[in-house]
Specification:
The complex is a heterodimer. By secondary structure, chain A is an all-alpha fold. Chain A has 22 helices and three strands. Helix content of chain A is 63%, strand content 2%. In chain A, a hairpin with a 4-residue loop joins strand 2 and strand 3. Chain B has three domains: 245 residues, no CATH class; 160 residues, Serine Threonine Protein Phosphatase 5, Tetratricopeptide repeat, CATH 1.25.40.990; 76 residues, Arc Repressor Mutant, subunit A (Orthogonal Bundle). Chain B has a three-stranded antiparallel sheet.
């Protein structure tokens, strides 16, 4: 008990919020691997609360604090102590292959969350201690996931008499965790204290935890409600730029991905680029995550592909994007289709399949451009005049190109349809003259942005 | 709804003695009430298992100088008789009840009129009350759970946790919690209840902590939080982890009626109104016949919903359940009731995951088409993730996947070929988005083809039944000026269309009602 409470006193006296939060971590520091066992064994259920009270409130060597706040911390550490007990027994059970109960761990940890929440709403915990929520919230989510994993067979109560609700049953605890995090979110958001002592400074960390949870629950649309709520408070909130970089980067990343999934690629690209620029240079994993969405974004908005140099530090991204990139560049339609099929599982898992699929348009454009280039020049009317490319191209010529490497020849109507799409999407300038079976391309800039 | 702590008393307490009345002023001559408030029932905290009899009825007697009638003495005797002890009623609870009963009787001067030999013993009363109280709070927690889909209102959660403790009142040793706040003020010492406090003082004394040294927090904030504290009963409340709602396990139905109107349940089902599996099978046969004969959708839908409900409350998840959902899903599709269809498909997905038979290929294909209709990209992605390689090769699923990719790539040519060759009942779903895809294809053509195309070409490319239908469609979207008779038939003047179909297309894509309710 001593080391935990001593750390509490030290952090409290110093006003060190992150240090304080660390005393509530369920993971011992590597220098004191026995810390949690010792902490738990130092007292028992009957006297834990009393002992914490003595140490926090009545020990003159500790920091002075108002009575109700002190009582709040007593409750917090009592709840923490109980949760640690559950964690230790769950871990011990896991080691001996017995059935471990992460559900109990979750419930105990949730109680800790609630007690902490009450500390702010009722006992006057100050805003600088808000990092405690980061630690407690983080593990609340983790324990919920573990609890749901081993509660696969648990019998849940029926809440809807009309139909089964398998999804809710599978993620019962995690959904509950989302609700708890939402309470914390509201606690931070609705703090009306002046900014310098406001819990609002905790908001983005909690939002990021919520986003993470919603993504896992596959209810990404709920993230929009959070964004809406934050927007409603815009005037009363510190600007995002004044928050810790870590909060900013994660937040922008999630906002970017949310927009990405809604096909708002321009907005997505903006946020992801900001996240990319702010991201710490050594967080390879985070940069990799950002690029996973930024690259497909870029492909759609600017029709550009990642360079080798950009991808070189990320072998995973290379295997993800390089095969497709090569085919897009070459205008290799069947190669593109094959690469898309080959990577389908990975792409679907990362939710980029539907976006990458649209890279086929760029592939087709590159192929048609090759046809255009291969078609050669008009016969010069007078010697010395600048060469002009032939702008009237038979539909059949495109059809042949499209059917390369394909077992069957695409019928003309379908070829026309693909060409019409190119024109419609402004990837190709010109028109189809159906009676003549010809495509008439613009003399200048038939393929915008490609130099011809 | 009664305050939860009101429940146990409601049958026993005469109105004038209801416990939440302000403490009597000092001069109140009623002696008995003193024991009532200082007794273990009121506070519970003096009772500890090691001191089983801190205040029994006997010591009460000389103090009050009441000559207890013999029947009352016998009643007390019987209450403590070991052979009358009920294991689920703790002794201190029983004592409290006993005291309460006697004091009420004394207050109402009915000590001599009550038939003490025949009224239930206190422990029996407690048990009875528990049984009576149970359904009320089970129901309450269920309701909350239903409402709590999004977020449980903390205040409400708090309320429930109190409710729960009120049921096993005083079971825990330190139960200052479940004691209503007004009691707290009464129990400082034996004489406290003789002092009348001004109202605002009482208010203050209810706050467990009053240390006002505000450090860092703004005064405003502090006050605000204080005010809030006043409402949620103070910090000390053992805010129990939101109570487990009473387990409403599966029921076994006993109803023998085939037909039943759908009624949305808000409380646990009553077995006599639930049809068991064999009856439901007969119901299905009856409904199939009726649907064929009468085709009354609102009747059928209602009946199917009640069948689904009966299956759910009995937790029947077998091939028959699948059949019910599949048939309802098909009928809903046919009638364009996309909301009901969606409910069925959601259930079917879960049922198919458990491999209990049915036609997963057919309905998985519908599911893809449905998500195309609702433009639900996230769900489409998930569907792709869930399909196995073998499933992707199944005809209906392959068709649906091809529809998806054709639309994703703007390949209307392929899309309309697929539309004309849809397996099973998928065409009902495709009908829902074929109009917007036609508009999309038309705007596409209008931009790409110059100066015109044969109307015949539009008919074929966009899967119309006849040139007439195609012309009608163009008319419907104000394209009459774009049709021109030439020597070789009607022509569609794509070059002159401008934005005619573009704006209609944007409108059509906007209008997707994601929930699909009608």
């Amino acid at each position: 008990m001593d080391s935990v409470i001593q750390d509490f006193r030290k952090a409290y006296s110093a006003g060190d919020g992150y240090g304080l939060a660390q005393t509530l971590s369920p993971i011992p520091p590597s220098s004191q691997s026995e810390r949690l066992q010792k902490f738990f064994q130092s007292t028992n259920y009957a006297s834990a609360q009393k002992e914490f009270r003595n140490q926090i409130l009545y020990d003159n060597s500790g920091p002075k604090m108002p009575m109700d706040e002190g009582n709040g911390w007593v409750e917090v550490y009592t709840a923490y102590w109980k949760a640690i007990g559950e964690i230790l027994s769950a871990e011990a059970a896991a080691q001996s292959n017995a059935r471990s109960s992460w559900t109990k761990v979750y419930d105990a940890w949730k109680e800790l969350t609630n007690v902490l929440h009450r500390g702010y709403s009722n006992c006057g915990f100050e805003a600088w201690t808000v990092p405690c929520f980061y630690v407690v919230g983080k593990y609340l989510r983790i324990f919920a996931i573990k609890a749901d994993e081993d509660a696969a067979t648990s019998t849940t109560t029926m809440t809807n008499f009309d139909d089964f609700n398998p999804e809710a049953e599978r993620n019962e605890k995690l959904e509950d965790a989302a609700r708890q995090l939402n309470r914390i979110f509201n606690l931070c958001l609705s703090d009306r204290a002046p900014l310098e002592e406001s819990r609002k400074w905790g908001i983005y960390n909690i939002i990021n935890l919520l986003f993470k949870t919603y993504f896992k629950l596959n209810s990404i649309s709920l993230s929009k409600n959070i964004l809406k709520a934050v927007r409603a408070y815009t005037g009363d909130m510190p600007v995002l730029e004044s928050f810790p970089l870590a909060h900013q980067v994660t937040f922008k990343y999630y906002v970017g991905v949310i927009n990405f999934l809604e096909e708002s690629y321009v907005e997505a690209e903006k946020n992801l680029t900001e996240a990319w620029n702010l991201c710490h240079k050594d967080s390879v994993r985070n940069k990799e995550l950002i690029l996973t969405y930024l690259i497909p974004c870029h492909l759609l908005t600017t029709h550009t592909l990642p360079t080798q140099a950009l991808l070189s530090p990320y072998p995973r991204l290379q295997s993800l994007f390089l095969p497709l990139s090569r085919c897009i560049k070459k205008g290799d339609l069947s190669g593109f289709d094959a690469a898309l099929v080959a990577g389908e599982d990975e792409f679907v898992k990362r939710r980029i399949y539907l976006t990458l699929e649209r890279g086929r348009d760029v592939t087709l454009r590159n192929l048609l451009r090759k046809v255009f280039l291969a078609n050669g020049f008009e016969e010069a009317k007078e010697p010395g005049a600048p060469q002009v490319r032939k702008s009237r191209i038979p539909i059949a010529a495109f059809g042949t190109a499209i059917s390369i490497d394909s077992k069957e020849t695409m019928d003309n109507d379908e070829v026309e349809c693909l060409l019409a799409n190119m024109v419609y999407k402004n990837l190709m300038k010109g028109y189809i003259s159906r009676p003549y079976g010809m495509v008439v391309l613009n003399k200048k800039g038939a393929f915008p942005g490609t130099g011809v | 709804m009664n305050a939860p702590w009101g429940i146990p008393h409601s049958q026993m307490v005469a109105p004038g003695t209801a416990p939440h009345y302000p403490p009597p002023p000092a001069y109140t001559p009623v002696v008995v009430r003193q024991t009532f408030t200082t007794g273990p029932y009121a506070m519970g905290q003096q009772v500890s298992p090691t001191q089983p009899q801190p205040i029994t009825v006997e010591p009460m007697e000389p103090k009050k100088k009441i000559d207890w009638p013999q029947p009352v003495r016998d009643y007390v005797q019987r209450s403590f008789d070991p052979c009358n002890v009920l294991p689920d009623v703790p002794r201190h609870e029983m004592e409290a009840k006993l005291k309460h009963t006697i004091s009420v009787a004394t207050d109402s001067n009915s000590l001599d009129t009550i038939d003490w030999a025949n009224i239930p013993l206190p422990q029996q009363m407690i048990r009875l009350e528990k049984v009576q109280a149970a359904p009320a709070w089970i129901q309450e927690s269920v309701n909350v759970h239903i409402n709590g889909n999004g977020q449980i209102n903390p205040a409400r959660e708090h309320l429930i946790s109190k409710k729960r403790t009120s049921q096993d009142l005083d079971r825990d040793d330190n139960e200052s919690v479940s004691t209503p706040p007004w009691r707290n003020t009464n129990n400082r010492n034996g004489f406290e209840d003789r002092i009348t406090y001004p109202a605002n003082r009482i208010d203050k004394r209810q706050q467990p902590f009053q240390d006002d040294a505000s450090k860092g927090t703004s005064k405003f904030q502090k006050n605000l939080e204080k005010r809030q504290r006043r409402f949620d009963g103070g910090y000390k409340s053992t805010y129990k982890v939101s109570p487990e709602p009473a387990a409403t396990g599966p029921v076994v139905g006993t109803s023998q009626t085939l037909e039943k109107r759908y009624f949305r349940l808000t409380a646990p089902p009553i077995p006599s109104q639930v049809r068991p599996d064999p009856i439901l099978r007969q119901t299905l046969e009856l409904l199939k016949k009726k649907w064929k004969k009468e085709g009354n959708y609102s009747y059928i839908c209602d009946q199917f919903k009640s069948m689904r409900q009966d299956l759910t409350v009995q937790r029947i998840k077998n091939e028959f359940t699948v059949t019910v959902y599949e048939i309802h899903g098909r009928i809903a599709l046919e009638k364009g009731d996309i909301g009901e269809y969606n409910q069925c498909q959601t259930q079917l997905k879960a049922l198919y995951d458990q491999k209990v038979g049915g036609n997963p290929v057919e309905f998985k294909a519908y599911r893809i088409l449905y998500f195309i209709h609702t433009s639900n990209r996230t769900a489409l992605n998930d569907v792709l993730a869930d399909l196995t390689t073998a499933e992707k090769e199944e005809k209906a699923i392959k068709h649906a996947l091809n529809v998806r990719s054709a639309l994703a790539l703007g390949n209307y040519h392929r899309f309309f070929r697929l539309y004309l060759d849809t397996p099973n009942m998928g065409a009902y779903l495709m009908d829902m988005f074929v109009v917007r895809e036609r508009l999309s294809a038309l705007s596409n053509m209008c931009k790409a083809y110059k100066p015109d195309v044969k109307l015949r070409f539009v008919t074929e490319e966009l899967g119309f039944e006849s040139d007439g239908d195609a012309a009608q469609f163009i008319y419907d979207y104000n394209g009459q000026h774009l049709l021109e008779e030439k020597e070789d038939g009607l022509r569609f003047l794509t070059g002159k269309a401008g934005q005619t179909f573009e704006s209609a297309k944007i409108q059509a894509f906007k209008k997707v009602d994601i929930k699909g309710q009608i």
